[in-house]
Amino acid sequence: MASVYLGLGSNLENPFFQLQSAVAQIEALPDTTLVGCSQFYGSKPLGPNDQPDFINAVCHVETQLSPQALLSALQKIEIEQGRIKKRHWGERLIDLDILLYADEIIRTADLTIPHAEIALRDFVLIPLAEISPGQTIPGLGCVETLISNLETSYLKPLD
């Protein structure tokens, strides 16, 4: 079983519900166990500011699925939920990303692990530190160190 961390985000059509639905579908994946999920966080959009705020979370799963099979399963969940992607860094009905897959570093045409922008994203790092304190990100270091290097954070825990 590989220890894997997934990033979840939404800012359209009841984002809280979109994340809850995605977590339930992740939990139902074959050969995969949901270990835990961070609380949900509100965040300002990373891209264009003329869009709603996001809700983000990080889930920890253990899986026997290969990185590519897991990516395909997550893309299927996005499609089944009616994923809407209007523009780069824009509005999202649901966005599911593989952040970390064990200690692997993967660079292919359709998959980059650790996630390419992980060190710059408070909405990934802070929930990751919540559910896995001291987590090392291959090639980048400890999650808490990366958090301390962030210039600003607009992340707000949601009830």
Please characterize this protein's 3D structure.
With 159 residues, this protein is of the alpha+beta class. It has a single domain, classed as 7,8-Dihydro-6-hydroxymethylpterin-pyrophosphokinase HPPK (Alpha-Beta Plaits), CATH 3.30.70. It is built from four helices and ten strands. The strands form three sheets. Strands 1, 2, 3, 4, 5 and 10 form a six-stranded antiparallel beta sheet that branches. The chain has a two-stranded antiparallel ribbon with strand order 6-7. A hairpin with a 4-residue loop joins strand 6 and strand 7 (112-113). The radius of gyration is 15 Å and the shape is globular.
Query: Order of helices and strands, N to C?
Result: EHEEEHEEEHEEHE
Which second-level CATH architecture applies? 2-Layer Sandwich
Quaternary organisation? single chain
Residue share in helix: 25-40%
Mean pLDDT: 93
Compute the separation of the termini in Å: 32 Å
Number of domains: 1
* Uncertain runs: none
Largest beta sheet, briefly? 6 strands, antiparallel
CATH superfamily: 7,8-Dihydro-6-hydroxymethylpterin-pyrophosphokinase HPPK
Radius of gyration: 15 Å
What percent of residues are in strands?
25-35%
Principal-axis shape equals globular
